[in-house]
Amino acid sequence: MARSLFLVLFAVATLLHGSAAQTRHVVGDSTGWTIPSGGAATYTTWASDKTFTVGDTLVFNFTNGRHDVAKVTKSAYDACNAATTLFTLTSGPASVVLNQSGEQYYICSFGTHCSLGQKLTINVVNRNSATPSPAPQPSRSGSPPTASPVPTPTQAPTPAPSTVPAPAPGPSSGPVTFTVGDTSGWIVPSNGAAAYTSWASGKTFKVGDILVFNYQSNTHNVEEVTKENFDSCNSTSPLKTYTTPPARVTLTKSGAHYFICGFQGHCPAGQKLAINVTGNSATSPSPIATPPSATTTPPSPTTNPSTPSPTGSLAPPPLNSGAASLGLVGVSATLLSLAAAFFY
Question: Tell me, what DSSP letter sits at residue 63?
């Protein structure tokens, strides 16, 4: 009876250990969350060798009243725009639980702290995507048949997976609508023309896409002009003029496009936008190369119809194993311990 109780307690402890396998990342390590002397590269370098998983925690150490932590969108991150944030934490140390996968962006919203490098971007992956589930399968095949999985490395002609990524370039995207300046809109920016240059720098504009200019009526307008008039902020002979907000401009041809506000003094103060428009967004030539590789792959599956599952099980485990592998070991140990408890 005592032995059964011990095994049950061991199973519970193992399960608890696996569930607590999240990682706590202290942003900047001993440097903390501050204006770094090395600029934005400081936090980029800090994050480069780390794996961030759903359930992990970021800890921002900073002095209250001098810094904060604001989670923002990518466009706000690129432009260091803290006008609209997803959330803001003002008390340090601030802990942020990573509850979703994908890219996440954090800045300090104080003054020019973000533009001086106090900004962090990370990519968060799902924990279950890192679970090395194929590992137990080779032992399932039993000791006598272990000779059969041995040939599988020689049968590992992996052209079959190569046919999968080939169709990836196939899908074509439709027209994209861009809101100029995002939440700031079309205004006289506080930091001059660099505001709209930064907004456009990370974007690709294609024929058929739409620009939306949000502004207050009778306070601003949108004029499409030539490069010479753009450079000199001359609005005497615009190519097109839009006076009713929100102004929607469909990009009908490729090449450089120039927009200014025609109200007195607005363009010299930075209310101007230059973009480059590329051709249509349809991209489908690359899938043509896939039929040759597809024709070469059928012979290899026909040679060993019974071995696809061992080949899948011999795939190398993913790089992010730490916490997930502990969780799997915990679950396996739990099942074995409970089974032993019933037998004893």
Answer: -
Calpha distance 25→22 (Å, rounded): 10
Buried b (16+ CB within 10 A) or exposed e, 29-53: eeebbbbbeeebebbeebbeeebbb
Q: Is the pTM of this model over 0.70?
A: no
* 309 sits in which H/E element: helix 308-313
On whether the CB atoms of residues 108 and 119 are closer than 8 A, the answer is yes
Does residue 37 surpass a pLDDT of 80?
yes
Q: How confident is the model at residue 158 (pLDDT cuts 50, 70, 90)?
A: low
Q: Which of 227, 245, 278 is the last residue of a domain?
A: 278
Q: Which of 263, 278, 293 is the last residue of a domain?
A: 278
> In this structure, is residue 78 part of a structural domain?
yes
Residue 27 maps to a domain: yes
**Domains: count for the chain:** 2
Domain that holds residue 253: 177-278
Q: Which CATH number does the domain housing residue 101 bear?
A: 2.60.40.420
Q: Is 147 in a helix, a strand, or coil?
A: helix
**pLDDT digits 0-9 by tens, 297-343:** 444 444 444 444 444 434 444 444 444 444 444 545 556 556 555 55
How many Å apart are CA 123 and CA 101, to the nearest integer? 7
Mode of pairing for the β-strands spanning 205-206 and 272-278: parallel
- Is 240 strand, coil or helix? strand
Task: Name which of 117-121, 162-166, 189-193, 225-229 the model is least confident about.
Answer: 162-166
> How far is the CA of 198 from the CAs of 193, 213, 226, in angstroms?
9, 16, 21
